[in-house]
Amino acid sequence: MPKFAHLLIIFLLFLLIIPITVLEVRIQDSNELVYQQLAKLEDTFDVKWKHSVTLQPVIETYKLEGYDKISLIQMVFDDNGPNLPAQPWEEQKWNITDGKFIITNYNQYFSRVPVTIGAIIADHTLIYNGKETPLRDVYRPGGFVYISVTKNNVYQLVIKEVGLWKKKMLKI
Q: Which of 16, 35, 37, 56 reaches 20 to 30 Å from 90, CA-CA?
């Protein structure tokens, strides 16, 4: 077998074996992938949204603890409103800095983070590694998605990305 063929086989094995971490957004009911981004374990991401009553931003910060393990580590908001925390719970810590409530020490874990995409006001946005992705752009407003962290290989990532690209092109 020529040297080139050996190198090609090694490269293809590399694509199938080497694990990579991916942050995914999937539709709740169908499990259909609507967004993916390369990620690193131990990184954090934010879900930013506007409260429908106070009309003020709320930022939830999550940490990628492991595959299928995401922890809520912080919530920041500047005005109390319905369905926002009203007081510390269990071991939560509350600080008020520059007029903002900063809640930490949640000790709450998810295998996937559920998000109902705001239909009118909320404008839920996924923020990871400086990239802001409005969730209404990847699925319909009012839709229910979840955010998860998975382990793939390069081949799986490319195949999924091609699938997302094809869906996007069909919508245009």
A: 56
Task: Yes or no: say if 127 and 94 are a contact pair by the CB < 8 Å rule.
Answer: no
Count of Cβ atoms closer than 10 Å to residue 79 Cβ: 15
Residue 116 has phi, psi (to 5 degrees) of: -95, 115
Query: Which of 165, 66, 47 minimizes the C-alpha distance to 113?
Result: 47
Domain range annotation of the chain: 3-171
Radius of gyration in angstroms for the set of CA atoms belonging to the chain, rounded to a whole number: 19
Tell me the DSSP string of 93-127.
EEEEETTEEEEEEEEEEESSEEEEPPSSS---EEE
Model pTM above 0.85: yes
- Give residue 58's pLDDT band: very low, low, confident or very high (50, 70, 90): very high
Strand pairing report for 131-134 and 100-110: unpaired
